[in-house]
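Re: export button greyed out
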Amino acid sequence: VNQNRAYASSGNSAFKRLAALAPLSDQDLAALARSADAPTRFAAHREILREGAPAMAPSIILSGWACRVRQFSDGRRQILSFLLPGELIGMCHQHEPLAATSLVALTHVDLCRAPSAGNEDEGSGLAEAYAVSGALEEFYLFRQIARLGRLSAYERMLDWMFEMRDRLALAGLVADDSFPMPITQEGLADALGLTSVHVNRTLQLMRREGLVELRGGMARLIDPQRLMSLIDYRPAHITAARGG
Amino acid sequence: VNQNRAYASSGNSAFKRLAALAPLSDQDLAALARSADAPTRFAAHREILREGAPAMAPSIILSGWACRVRQFSDGRRQILSFLLPGELIGMCHQHEPLAATSLVALTHVDLCRAPSAGNEDEGSGLAEAYAVSGALEEFYLFRQIARLGRLSAYERMLDWMFEMRDRLALAGLVADDSFPMPITQEGLADALGLTSVHVNRTLQLMRREGLVELRGGMARLIDPQRLMSLIDYRPAHITAARGG
DNA sequence: CGCGTTCTTGACTGCTTTCAAAGATGGTGG
DNA sequence: CCACCATCTTTGAAAGCAGTCAAGAACGCG
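Workaround output, generated via the alternate export path:
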């Protein structure tokens, strides 16, 4: 694959996301660019941070997918949340000295330090983007809980795909309801609280019904309008607080 | 019931929790006491905040249990998280103008504004307590996800009871592994992603096995040491960051 | 081209839900 | 103090969604 081009544009979509969350000044963008100049790279499946290890510096996902994972002693695994391009790690809760969960790279991942945002009260663009990003992260956690607690396998998968679409769209990674989905069916199972066998069956059912297309790591939602009504999907309506 | 005494001591356990998270100065305690002088009261089952409504001022639960809820259009309900005495609402993500989830009182609840903590960087006791509380809140969300995603009904209930014990212990509300559990089996079902029927059956099984005692809104774990090994329970090890 | 990972399929099991109804509990008002 | 009512708990039988085990096919990478 043409990794060169991928790395050349690394961070591009990440910046796009942050700029979408709050207006960024040239100064903000310069700080981001400087930070992204020295990315840390992780290969797929590599552990970025282990539960119980000293916490990480606040960071930005420049490219690739990562996830938080809880590994049980008997082998069971649960993906707690996903970390997509432009999303942040360890911004808000830096007061905890130890990482509460492991972080694992699902694909090649480029990471960089999140430039500090100055005083949060001054309405700096970066500070605002960070705050909105934090609010979104919490929102996604709530959604994951509702998904696991009350949705059927079928509903979980649709709901999850919609969320991924919306989150990737912030980074400009969605074109025509088609978006990258670089995760195995076993990975999906670990995220949705199912088995890979059942994920497979459900996926095939959805394909037969013409609801989604899956090819080569890309997903496409066929009739979003109709699907959203099927599953009571509510997009995030979290934006930067206007004025003051 | 002797509500008078209950209200006289309202906030007592809440203060205890915050003081357990970080050392509080007399100034901090005075600010808390002042705030708690003007509590807002909610009757059981009352809605504290509706999804989509303007967000609430940062607040402290002085007494009682509340929860975040996601209500589906077809009647399904999922309790996303619990809010116990001394826990905080809306501290970190005040930048979102609208509430992302509904808040409902499970019992009578007394609420008060969280006194502002001055500059977070100055190591004020309150600011530190708020930060640790935020980290814990996130940790509990992760745990809820793992619980719903990968544990059986039996395991979910034990795991949840352990978490409640530990959280209530911070507020000094646990004596001899016995603690208040003012929630119906249907409420438990909504929190654990089960049906009330199955919660009931599972609870009875656990009682028959002599693992727990449940009487009059109080729960008691019989042999915590043994139980914890059964379910791979990991206590939170989040504390205030030392030094700096 | 060969090997390992991932995907697919089938048969069977089982945990959990559903539906329905009876029993207990607790608070309220007469 | 007791009857009454709503809410909560308990129980049974039957159905269903998802898990388990196992093996073969397809895919992608080196």
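Confidence is low (pLDDT under 50) at residues 1-8 of chain A. The button fix ships in the next patch.
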